[in-house]
Amino acid sequence: MQSRRMMILRAVVEDYIRSQEPVGSAALAKHHQLGVSSATIRNDMSALEEEGYLVQPHTSAGRIPTQKGYRYFVDGLAAVIPLSEPQRRAIRNFLSGSVSLQDTLQRSARLLASITGQVALVASPALSKSKVKRIEIVQVSSSTLLVVVITDAGGVAQHMIQATTINSDDLLHLTNMVNECCIGLSLSSASQRVYALANRKDLASALQIISQLANALEDMHDGEHTHDLYMAGASQLAHRQSIVDFASLFDALEEQAVIMRLMTSLSEEASDCASGVSVAIGSETHTPGLLNASVVTSTYGYNADSDSAFIG
Questions:
Q1: What is the pLDDT of residues 237-248, one digit of tens each?
Q2: pTM score
Q3: Which domain CATH number covers 211?
């Protein structure tokens, strides 16, 4: 593509994202230093339309980017701009008031929505990628135990198991043995270690509990609902003037399982990108409600094992 047309395409994409209104040649000539007349810009926009990068929604309107135009912009014209130190400091100050992991994630979603002006989503750390920090086994009735797993990422998972009566001393001993062999392991590895405890003679009275505890840890690892999703910014779309009907987008956002699978898939792509960011545009999301939207996803955390995204 000619360099001038690349500049024009970049300007159209940036202006349309900002205004959500078709962009005309006169506006480009006025607001961008392209060094050519509006007539020349208009001719280049016509050429970009013929090549499939722009489309004119109405005969009397300016032009808007197509999915092909957005993709060219993302792959060849856009750049990830690092945060300045004042911005980083402001973010740290905002998050420092968090009182829990859940509060931190909700604050992060609100912050992303505020910065981008779009819908922001933040997923809690995946249990399957977390390490065990502590396991508590609490007797809630004569035949029911509550297993509480705390992960290194601050996540908490609970599971009820049915078991024969066990006295408090034996339960405390079992809890200590479980933590001794499981701390620092993934849930799947911890499950295998717990199974091995069945061979210990001093735990012979807890064989049923050991078996169910091992199964519970494996279920936590394999469970479909291993993420909580925190969302902010949906109200910003509701007040936006746009040629796009947002009803289908709001419907899609309510399907959290679908959104979570999409974010997980895109985060795997982001991990392989030098920028650490993955962008799915329109039909690339494979989600009907997002055909008029893009999803920008990145990972966060010490091991980049969790996902965040904004949609718009």
A1: 766 655 556 778
A2: 0.73
A3: 3.30.390.60
Query: What total number of domains does the chain contain?
Result: 3
Dig out the tokens for 295 from the structure.
């999803």
The CATH number that applies at residue 307 is 3.30.450.40
Is the pLDDT at 208 greater than 90? The verdict is no
What distances in angstroms separate CA 183 from CA 55, 155, 187, 194, 266, one per listed residue? 57, 14, 10, 11, 30
The per-residue pLDDT for range 254-286, each reduced to its tens digit, is 888 888 888 888 877 776 676 678 889 989 988
Q: Strands of 57-187 (E only): list them.
A: 64-65, 119-123, 132-141, 144-151, 156-162
Taking residue 82's Cβ as centre, other Cβ atoms within 10 Å add up to 8
d(Cα 110, Cα 95) in Å, to the nearest integer?
A: 11
Q: What is the span of the domain harbouring residue 45?
A: 3-77
Asked if the structure places residue 30 within a domain, the reply is yes
Residue 298 has pLDDT above 90, yes or no: no
Cβ–Cβ under 8 Å, residues 221 and 188: yes
Same domain, 244 and 180: no
